[in-house]
TrEMBL record:
<feature type="transmembrane region" description="Helical">
    <location>
        <begin position="97"/>
        <end position="126"/>
    </location>
</feature>
<dbReference type="InterPro" id="IPR003544">
    <property type="entry name" value="Cyt_c_biogenesis_CcmB"/>
</dbReference>
<feature type="transmembrane region" description="Helical">
    <location>
        <begin position="59"/>
        <end position="77"/>
    </location>
</feature>
<keyword id="KW-1003">Cell membrane</keyword>
<comment type="function">
    <text>Required for the export of heme to the periplasm for the biogenesis of c-type cytochromes.</text>
</comment>
<dbReference type="InterPro" id="IPR026031">
    <property type="entry name" value="Cyt_c_CcmB_bac"/>
</dbReference>
<keyword id="KW-0812">Transmembrane</keyword>
<feature type="transmembrane region" description="Helical">
    <location>
        <begin position="165"/>
        <end position="184"/>
    </location>
</feature>
<feature type="transmembrane region" description="Helical">
    <location>
        <begin position="31"/>
        <end position="47"/>
    </location>
</feature>
<comment type="similarity">
    <text>Belongs to the CcmB/CycW/HelB family.</text>
</comment>
<protein>
    <recommendedName>
        <fullName>Heme exporter protein B</fullName>
    </recommendedName>
</protein>
<keyword id="KW-1133">Transmembrane helix</keyword>
<keyword id="KW-0472">Membrane</keyword>
<keyword id="KW-0813">Transport</keyword>
<feature type="transmembrane region" description="Helical">
    <location>
        <begin position="196"/>
        <end position="222"/>
    </location>
</feature>
<dbReference type="Pfam" id="PF03379">
    <property type="entry name" value="CcmB"/>
</dbReference>
<keyword id="KW-0201">Cytochrome c-type biogenesis</keyword>
Length: 227
């Protein structure tokens, strides 16, 4: 397949997933509403102290981001499995690993953009400084693709199961602990006006490694689930 036609085919998957997300706005809003509720309810539980809120703000936002992304991950391949599109992807001349990579990155983009747009308000709500906010955005942009790529492997393995969202979360949450540690460490360093390039570098390395390994693992998991 020539390069232009390959790009057009992959772009068609992007348009299809965006159109499906638009038509399923209720499901699209669930992770976002969960993210907002966790962050708004947390200060009510620990009190309005600005110092305490600032100290825990990075951890609160990151835990809420991980849980909200996992909440919306179940539907990543669900519709394709139910309508038979997944089998057609496997028979397509387009490599399956490219198809799943495009679908995962589109899913990540659809869910992360609302989180980033809401982050200034939530950062203000949790009394984050400007340097902490910049560190938060950097860690979200570097770390959340790792969540989507690793999470897609779990989703692919359980795509044929009903109500697999809880199972996927239980399997994957331990894998995100190192990512959570480096992300919150970067935000804490920013709060103390310390450099945090090391933490961002580790997160970028995790992202590149996951980007290289995950598409093949997702494609193989989908083939196993179909058999």
């Amino acid at each position: 397949m020539s390069q232009p036609s390959l790009l057009s085919v992959l772009f068609s998957f992007v348009k299809r997933d965006i159109a499906l997300a638009y038509h399923q706005r209720a499901e699209l809003m669930q992770p976002l509403m969960f993210f907002i509720m966790v962050i708004t309810l947390f200060p009510l539980a620990i009190g309005p102290s600005p110092e305490i809120l600032q100290r825990v703000s990075g951890a609160v936002i990151w835990v809420a981001a991980i849980l909200s992304l996992l909440l919306g991950m179940e539907r990543m391949f669900r519709d394709d499995f139910n309508d038979g599109s997944l089998e057609q992807y496997m028979l397509s001349p387009t490599p399956l690993y490219l198809i799943v990579l495009v679908k995962v990155l589109t899913h990540w983009f659809i869910h992360i953009v609302p989180l980033v747009l809401l982050s200034p308000l939530l950062a203000l709500f949790l009394n984050m400084t400007m340097s902490m906010y910049f560190a938060l955005i950097a860690t979200l942009l570097l770390g959340t693709p790792v969540i989507s790529l690793i999470g897609a492997i779990g989703v692919a393995l359980t795509v044929g199961l009903q109500r697999s969202g809880v199972l996927v979360a239980l399997l994957l949450i331990p894998l995100f602990i190192p990512l959570l540690i480096f992300a919150t460490s970067a935000i804490d360093s920013a709060s103390l006006q310390l450099p945090y390039a090391f933490q961002l570098g580790i997160m970028a390395a995790l992202g590149l490694f996951t980007l290289a390994v995950s598409p093949g693992a997702i494609a193989y998991s989908l083939k196993v689930s179909q058999n």
